Amino acid sequence: IVGAMVATRENVSDAVFVAAAAFLISGTLYAIYGPSSQAQPNPHAGWAGFKIAFSEVKNPKLLLRIASLAAIATIHPANAALLPLQVLQVGGSTKDVGIIAGLAAALEIPLMLLGGYLAQRIALWRLIIGAGVVHAVYLVLLGTSYSLPQVYVLTVLHAAGASIMLTLHMTYLQDQLPDRP
């Protein structure tokens, strides 16, 4: 919806307002229907809890996996910052940014479902690596694109890589620490 608003209006602040309202509504619904705040106090809260949690993941192999997943998770916000700049550089407008964002979001939903389906048949780490490679190729091609149609076509690669990475990387991390939420 926000992408459609950016694409159809000259003023982007309307879309920002709608996004802010959606977050406010989501937060309110969570406050009303979310878990009870009557939970028992955590004796491991604060710095002591951090040290205990860190000691559980100090395995170098696990730390490497966590670091690589953190790097993967930063790709999406980096793309969100760089995509509008590239669109404007190749002659596009804020309308094009909105269309591309809406197109990517629309493609990500079925691709996330496909990622869930594939996760039942292929090892998660292989899916994540494959999605990372797809997204890396997308970013390289985006950075070297010279026309707006190229950026539109690259949206398919972005959606394919981002949808799988954003859907599965937390599941993979949780599999590494099965007894810790």
Keywords:
single chain; 181 residues; mainly alpha; globular
Structural overview:
The chain is 80% helix and 0% strand. The mean pLDDT is 81. The relative contact order is 0.13. The radius of gyration is 20 Å and the shape is globular. With 181 residues, it is mainly alpha-helical.
Radius of gyration over alpha carbons? 20 Å
On the 0 to 100 scale, the average pLDDT is: 81
For the record, give the distance between the C-alpha atoms at the N and C termini, rounded to a whole number: 33 Å
* Spans of at least 5 consecutive residues with low confidence: none
Largest sheet: none
From N to C, what is the helix and strand string? HHHHHHH
Envelope shape: globular
Give the SSE map.
Layout: H1 2-8, H2 13-33, H3 46-56, H4 60-89, H5 94-119, H6 124-144, H7 148-176
What's the short story on this structure?
The chain has 181 residues and is an all-alpha fold. The protein has seven helices and no strands. Helix 4 (60-89) packs antiparallel against helix 7 (148-176).
